[in-house]
Amino acid sequence: AEDGDRLFVEGVDEFVSTDGVNVAAPYAGVIEFDGDLIAGWRDYVDARTIDAMRAGGGIPPHVAELIDRPAA
Asked: CA–CA separation, 36 vs 31, rounded Å?
């Protein structure tokens, strides 16, 4: 989503940890521009969800739902 000089992005980064655990880390971010330059960048993640997956808890349903969405 875009509003003036702000861009909202979201996604899920999937990776296999060095321990062989599949992790899917959902994130959201806001990027602010000043002309062609990035003036600010904020990322938001749920560290508890990521830590639970790394501990072997598997991918929770709300993250699986994000992964299953069609790409835009």
From this structure: 12
Helices (H), the chain: 47-52, 61-68
- Low-confidence stretches of the chain (pLDDT beneath 70): none
Vertex 41: Cα angle to 13 and 45 (nearest 5): 35
Catalogue the E-assigned strands of the chain.
Answer: 2-3, 6-16, 22-34, 37-45
pTM score, whole prediction = 0.73
- What whole-number distance in Å separates Cα of residue 58 and Cα of residue 67? 14
Q: Exposure string (b/e) for 7-34, b if CB count within 10 Å is 16 or more? A: eeeeebeeeeeeeeeebbbbeeeebeee
